[in-house]
Design brief:
The chain has helices at residues 91-103, 113-129; strands spanning 3-9, 21-27, 33-38, 49-52, 56-60, 70-73, 131-132. With 133 residues, the chain is α+β, with helices and mostly antiparallel strands. A 4-stranded mixed β-sheet has the order 3-2-1-7, covered by helices on one side. A 3-stranded antiparallel β-sheet has the order 4-5-6, with no helix packed on it. The longest helix has 17 residues, at 113-129. The protein is globular and about 45 Å long.
Length: 133
């Protein structure tokens, strides 16, 4: 990663002093860039995303509604809703279940310690670069 900058602000009145909106911009050694804008200060209906990869783009204006997902290839092909399937399982329960199974030796660890360390380093770098809006 070449650079990371974050901006944070508090929008929703509450008794805590934790920022509830964050914007993070990343630039990687490869030249790729990434950005995140979100937080609890946004209404649930406003949670959208756009993930652009070399050969496909995933986007939705309502991330919590699987029916609103759009998948488009670089060649312009769009997948129909019928071609995509989604699990109704609670993601956190699945993740915790896999983690517990790996601790018991039934499954391999879902991520390596090195990958987990990189994730923490990324979040810490964003936190340390954050400036109030």
């Amino acid at each position: 990663m070449v650079s990371i900058n974050a901006i944070v602000t508090k929008k929703v009145p509450s008794e805590h002093q934790i920022e509830d909106i964050v914007s993070v911009n990343l630039r990687f050694d490869s030249g790729a860039v990434g950005s995140f804008l979100g937080g609890t200060g946004f209404p649930a209906a406003g949670y959208g995303f756009c993930l652009r990869f070399e050969s496909v783009t995933l986007s939705s204006e309502r991330a919590l509604d699987p029916g609103r997902l759009t998948v488009e290839t670089a060649a312009g092909f769009r997948f129909s809703k019928e071609e995509m399937t989604f699990s109704r399982e609670e993601p956190l329960q699945v993740e915790v279940g896999q983690w517990l199974a790996s601790l018991q030796g039934d499954l391999p660890m879902p991520i390596s310690g090195e990958d987990a360390r990189k994730s923490v380093a990324l979040v810490e770098a964003a936190y340390n670069s954050a400036t109030p809006a």
